[in-house]
Amino acid sequence: MAYLLYHGMMLGLLAASCWSAGIALSPVLGRRPGLGDLRLLARFCLGLAALTLIVFLLSATGLLRSRLLWALMALLLAGALVHLTRRGRGAWPVRGMPGLEALVYLALLLALLTPFFLLAVTPAVTGDAGVYHLTLPKLFLAHQGFRPVPLNVYSTWPLGVELLFAVAMAIADYVLAKLVHFGFGLLTLYALYAGCRAHHRPESGWLAMIFFLANGVVGFELRVAYVDLAYAFYFLAAFLFMLQARTDSPAAGTALTLSGLCCGLMAGVKVTGIVGAAVIGALFLPHLVSAWRRGNARPVLTSFLTRFCLPVTILWTPWLARAAWLTGNPFYPFFHDLLGGPDWSSSLTGQLQAWQSSIGMGRTPVDYLLLPVRVILAGGRGYERFDGEIGAFWIVLLPLAAWAAWRVPLVRTCLGASGLYFLFWSLSSQQMRFLIPVLPLLAIAGAVAVVELVGRLPSARGRRLARVLGVVAAATFLVVTQGRELAAGYRTFGVYLRAEGDLLTTAGHPVHAFVNRSLPEDAKLLLLNTNQAFFFDREILADSFFEASQIAEWLRPAASVAQLRKLLDGRGVSHLLIEHRPLPIGYPPVLGELLRDPDHVEQIHLSEDRRFSVFALKPGEAE
After folding, report:
1. Does residue 622 surpass a pLDDT of 50?
2. Which residues lie closer than 8 Å to 369 by C-beta, 6 or more apart?
3. Best CA proximity match to 58, nearest among 185, 163, 158, 215
4. Per-residue pLDDT at 474 exceeds 90
5. In the sheet where 575-579 sits, what is the strand order?
6. What is the pLDDT of residue 463?
7. CA–CA gap between residue 263 and residue 257 (Å, rounded)
8. Concatenated DSSP letters for 342-375?
9. Count of CB atoms within 10 A of residue 98's CB?
10. For 128-166, what is each residue's pLDDT tens digit?
11. For the segment 21-33, what is each residue's pLDDT rounded down to a tens digit?
12. Enclosing H/E stretch for 476
């Protein structure tokens, strides 16, 4: 139980620090920004921007240390206490007690979110988290800042959320980093409610939260240390601020700046973040056209460039500069033929493009026509099924939203932005989790459509009852579709109660403990058939992705065992670890010869489940 309380309290500490940083920066919005229901959202966005920038600067200057990060947290929390003391009760983010209906909805959300929290707080590390989402922050902390990571393409891409993971790992552990991503899910839920309250009605916000949670891919992301929920939060926040920026309210300029800030943060989440920023920016074009027709285009265009485009550029450019510093190519590994970059080739570019194009259910004109229906009804495990699921209820909810779009501008804008993003997604890697950013917008559109439909009932009591039943029905559908996940989450509660000792020691495979305990501190390990590097406490070389294997490309020129040894020795490789599983990686045949040659290698470990083998390279054998 102490394990759960500790991590819950530490997540609260990070949230309070973020809110406090937002308070410190609130004066830049003006004394009365007029953001209304979006004020708290604005503070969190400002706080996240401040934390990300500070940690980026610490990492770039080699000052990323636990003591400095703890001092930063303490300073922010002290500032928040001073603010609350001076401003009194009115400074608290939540004011007044919610009504009975809101309390029922909150209790329902708590019951639905608790199992996801229990799953998120497990010490397991999943997929890409073990490749780079958690591995890179661990390396940055160990080296007190940014450092080159050979053969890891992801290490050169924007890593804004990973910097927040580093903060969590510095003040606690990697489980707290997982909870940071869970926290972005909570922020997305809050933004859904605040956005609906600001631009429609509170009841549509409760329904939108349920619609968002009812997607299988969202349930998966809530319990892992990925970045897609952060992308979704920034995308949604930027969208909501852009809606206000397109009005003639006194807060329009402030909202436009905040939208640009969120888009800049989104561009720092992942390499495709700039696409989301472009989609949000495109929403301002109708306002610009309207100003041009009124003969007022110049000041509106100037405001867009300085308030929106400038923050995006300021927050995105440092990541490009960092990639250029590491590889000579700000867009590495893209545009390799033009800009170059280490450990890459035209052949790997072709393999990467072929792999990305193979994800989904085809790329013919007919496939694109059927794509929306297939995404809704045919999602599942495996890249041939988009590697994820969303709710089948969208097959009904989206037509209903299309009906409401004729009457409600908010729904029309949500569907327009979602459609534009979906177009970009369909032309790129069609992985379901990359569609998560549009799910909040679709949830708003669907929720508003349902509320509008209910609003046509003649009786006020009937309308209220229908709203409550709608939320309960949506929650019931969530339980039915994600019942296995919810049950698994609640079952883990008993595990935490019975657990003794440090739960973190139960994570990982025994081979990690063997390597960390038995290999010399200066050993450099080359991973073959696996790229899960997080639990190794030493230098690792591993592929970013197997479908375009940089290791295979690096070793391919070797025509003999001696030449292969020369390549390995050139990078200081002292040990090899192999996971025994069939993968379509084109390793050169000479690699097998090396592993079977007792004059060059010695097998020093075979795991009990015979899944992993560890080999030591014998010194002095290369020619």
Report:
1. no
2. none
3. 163
4. no
5. 539-541, 524-528, 575-579, 612-617, 601-606
6. 67
7. 10
8. TT--HHHHHHHHHHHHHSSS--SHHHHHHHHHHH
9. 12
10. 999 999 999 999 999 999 999 999 999 999 999 999 999
11. 888 887 777 665 6
12. helix 460-481
